[in-house]
Specification:
This protein is an alpha+beta fold and 72 residues long. It is built from 1 helix and 4 strands; from the N terminus they run ββββα. Strand 2 and strand 3 form a beta hairpin.
C-alpha cells in the first residue's frame, strides 16, 4: 500500500493506493481540516482502472481538490 500526505489550502489529504485484482490499485482519501474542527472525513473516490500506485494517488488528490472546492 502506497500513501502520500498532501497539503491543500486549510486541508490535508491522506491519499492511499491499495492493491486490487489483476495488478490494479484502488485509491483512498481521508480529508482533515488543519484548523479546528479537525474531524477527519473519509471521501469516496471513483474507482477506475489504475495500473500504478501513482495513478491511484493522483485520482485521490483530484477528488480531494474537488471536494474542497465544493464542500470545504
Amino acid at each position: 500500500m502506497g500513501s502520500r500526505i498532501i497539503k491543500h489550502e486549510d486541508f490535508e489529504f491522506l491519499c492511499t493506493a491499495d492493491p486490487a485484482d489483476r495488478g490494479q490499485f484502488v485509491p483512498g482519501l481521508v480529508v482533515t481540516r488543519r484548523v479546528w474542527p479537525t474531524r477527519p472525513r473519509v471521501i469516496a473516490v471513483q474507482r477506475g482502472h489504475h495500473l500504478t500506485e501513482e495513478a491511484a494517488i493522483a485520482a485521490a488528490i483530484d477528488q480531494g481538490v474537488e471536494w474542497v472546492r465544493n464542500y470545504g
